[in-house]
């Protein structure tokens, strides 16, 4: 157990509304990640962080922003949600030189 | 362009059968991980391989990293219904700070 929690676990929102997902870790890991998972696409990296206020884009970052003001919290924001952002979102931390990932339980987001 | 190709995409077998799934790339990775994901949960790390030609065993699961560190395989002996899930491979480069995931193999083991 890597001590990762995500909130909310489920959310339904309307197109055009802002949405923020939270990832919280209890083990003080430097690296944190946000992925989305859709049928047929596996896990795709949205953004990641390598320290407080240090973030970088992943392969599907358009329409998403992130913030990390504390080591333990990594926030993912959809400024104006679209139906194409309906997905399951996973947060992860990494341990070790090989960047092994440890995942949270996921947030299922539906944009109507 | 998918950096990591996993095959087959879907696999359905009977309990007790053996199977192998593959993870292939044109890139050389410094390490490769395998994960298993059950419905409604996050992926769980099974193993990390870092040396070309390395073989690791985890009970009935055998993982192999290719000599050139571009590909890997997962072999399951005498599959059980509890092995059902999505198997994902992920490759990482030294100091990259992140991993790249394949699209996964969905395995169903029927009793």
Short descriptors:
heterodimer; A: mainly beta; seven-stranded mixed beta sheet; four-stranded antiparallel beta sheet; globular; B: mainly beta; 0% helix; 53% strand
Characterization of this structure:
By secondary structure, chain A is mostly beta strands. Chain A contains no helices and eleven strands. In chain A, a hairpin with a 4-residue loop joins strand 9 and strand 10. Chain B is mostly beta strands and 111 residues long. Chain B has no helices and eleven strands. In chain B, the strands form two sheets. In chain B, strands 2, 4, 5, 9, 10 and 11 form a six-stranded mixed beta sheet that branches. In chain B, a hairpin with a 6-residue loop joins strand 9 and strand 10. The model of chain B has no long low-confidence stretch (mean pLDDT 94). At the A-B interface, strand 5, strand 9 and strand 10 of A face strand 4, strand 5, strand 9 and strand 10 of B.
- Amount of helix of chain A: under 10%
Strand residue content of chain A: over 45%
Summarize model confidence as the mean pLDDT of chain B. 94
**Largest interface here, residues on each chain?**
A-B, 27 and 25 residues
| Secondary-structure-derived class of chain A | mainly beta
List the helices and strands and how they pair.
The complex is a heterodimer of chains A (112) and B (111).
Chain A lengths: L3 E4 L2 E4 L5 E7 L6 E7 L3 E10 L2 E4 L6 E7 L2 E6 L8 E9 L4 E4 L3 E5 L1
Parallel strand pairs in A: 2-11
Antiparallel strand pairs in A: 1-3, 3-8, 4-5, 4-9, 5-6, 7-8, 9-10, 9-11
Chain B lengths: L4 E3 L2 E5 L4 E6 L6 E7 L6 E6 L5 E4 L2 E5 L5 E6 L8 E8 L6 E3 L3 E6 L1
């Amino acid at each position: 157990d890597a001590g990762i929690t995500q909130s909310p676990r489920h959310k339904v929102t309307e197109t055009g509304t802002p949405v923020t997902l939270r990832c919280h870790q209890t083990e003080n890991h430097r690296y944190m990640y946000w992925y989305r998972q859709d049928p047929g696409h596996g896990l795709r990296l949205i953004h990641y962080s390598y320290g407080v206020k240090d973030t970088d884009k992943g392969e599907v970052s358009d329409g998403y922003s992130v913030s990390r003001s504390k080591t333990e919290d990594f926030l993912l924001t959809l400024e104006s949600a679209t139906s194409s952002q309906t997905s399951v979102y996973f947060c992860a931390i990494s341990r070790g030189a090989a960047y092994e990932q440890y995942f949270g339980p996921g947030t299922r987001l539906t944009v109507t | 362009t998918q950096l990591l190709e996993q095959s087959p995409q879907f696999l359905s077998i009977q309990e007790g059968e053996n199977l192998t799934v593959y993870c292939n790339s044109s890139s050389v990775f410094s390490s490769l991980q395998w994960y298993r994901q059950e419905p409604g949960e996050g992926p769980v790390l099974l193993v990390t391989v870092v040396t070309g030609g390395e073989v690791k065993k985890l009970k009935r699961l055998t993982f192999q990293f290719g000599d050139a560190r571009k590909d890997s395989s997962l072999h399951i002996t005498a599959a059980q219904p509890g092995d059902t899930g999505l198997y994902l491979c992920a490759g990482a480069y030294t100091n990259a700070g992140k991993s790249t995931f394949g699209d996964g193999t969905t395995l169903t083991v029927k009793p």
